[in-house]
Amino acid sequence: MSTGNDSTVTEFILAGLAVRPELQLPLFLLFLGIYVVTVVGNLGMITLIGLSSNLHIPMYYFLCGLSFIDLCQSTIITPKMLVNFVADKNMISYPECMTQLYFFLIFGISECYMLAAMAYDRYVAVCNPLLYNITMSYQVCSCLVFGVYSVGVIESTVLTGCMLRLHFCKVDRINHYYCDLYPLLELSCSSTYINEVMVLCFGTVNVLVPSLTILGSYIFIIASILRIRSTEGRSKAFSTCSSHISAVSVFFGSAAFMYMQPSSVSSMDQGKVSSVFYTIVVPMLNPLIYSVRNKDVKVALNKILKKR
Questions:
Q1: DSSP 25
Q2: Spatial CA neighbour of 80 closest among 64, 103, 47, 106
Q3: How do strand 91-93 and strand 11-14 relate by DSSP bridges?
Q4: Among 94, 51, 99, 46, which Cα is nearest to 70's?
C-alpha cells in the first residue's frame, strides 16, 4: 500500500461540491453545460484566429494563448468532477492526483502571466501606437509567451516536487472537488511548513507581479486616454481594455482569496466557492467577454460564415 514517496495512501476520496444527494444531478447538468460552452468557445476562438488573416496580430496572438490555457485548465478539472457527480465513490488515485495538481498549477500560473502580457500589449497599442508593430514584433510576442509557460512549468515543478515529499497516512478524504495544494496539505501526517511557505511565497509573487504589471499598464493607458480630446476616441480606446479589466478582476480576486493566506486562516468551504470561479467560470467567460464585444472578431466570424 505504499507509493513512490513511501506514503501509505494510494488513493484519495474527493469530497466534491455538494454533500446532499439531491443536488448531484442538477450540479452535473449545470457544470456539463458550462464545460460544453467552455470547449466550444475556446476552440472556436483558437480556430477563428487561426483562419482569419486580419486577426494575425499580437493582441489576438495572446488571446489565442489565453484560450488554449483556459481550455486545458477546464479539461484538467471539469471532466473528473462530472464523473464524481454520478459515481458512487469520488475516488482518485495518488498518481492521478499528483498529475492533476501538476498540470493545474502549470496552466493556473501561466494564466496569471498571460493576462499581464495582454495588459502590456494594450499599453503599447494605446500609448505608443506608431511603434506598436516594432515593439510587439513576432519575436517579442514569442519570447513573452515562452516566458509565460516557462514560469508556469518551473513553479509547478517545484510545488509538486515539494508535495511529493510529504507522507499521507490514514486520512484520505480531500475536502475539495479536485487535487489542490491546501486541501492536500491538510491531509499530510508530516511537516508541511516548507510547503506552506513555498505556496505563500509563490502565490504572493504570482498575484502581485502580474497585478502590478497590469495596474501600471492601465495607469499609463488611462492617462493616455484622458489626453484624447474627442469623446469617440476615448470610448474606442477604453473599449479595447474593458473586457481585459473584467477578466482580470474575477480571476485575480478569486485566486488571491484562495492562495494569499495561510491554510490555518483559509476556509476550504469558502475556497471551493472561489475555486469554481477561476477554474470553471472564468474559462467559460473569457471567450465571451473577449469576442462578443469585439468588432474585429465579429467581422472575421461573419466572413467565415459567409464563405461556408
A1: H
A2: 103
A3: antiparallel
A4: 46
Main-chain dihedrals φ then ψ at residue 91, nearest 5 degrees? -100, 145
Longest dimension (CA), the chain: 71
Q: What is the DSSP letter of 281?
A: I
How far, in Å, CA of 156 to CA of 235, rounded? 40
Cell 509557460, located at residue = 149
Contact 297, 243 (CB under 8 A): no
> CB under 8 Å to 270, separation ≥6 — which residues?
257
Is residue 271 packed enough to be buried (19+ CB in 10 Å), middle (13-18) or exposed (0-12)? buried
Binned at pLDDT 50, 70 and 90, residue 278 comes out as confident
Over residues 143-154, the mean pLDDT reads 95
The backbone torsions φ and ψ at residue 174, rounded to the nearest 5 degrees and listed phi first, read -85, 120
Average pLDDT of span 162-172: 84
Q: Say how far apart CA 248 and CA 119 lie, in whole Å.
A: 10
Report helix, strand or coil for 233. Answer: helix
Q: What is the pLDDT of residues 96-116, one digit of tens each?
A: 999 999 999 999 999 999 999
Grid coordinates representing 50 are 487561426
Asked if residues 277 and 254 have their Cβ atoms less than 8 Å apart, the reply is: yes
Q: Which amino acid is at 283?
A: P
DSSP result, 60-77: HHHHHHHHHHHHHHHHHH
Cell of 26: 442538477
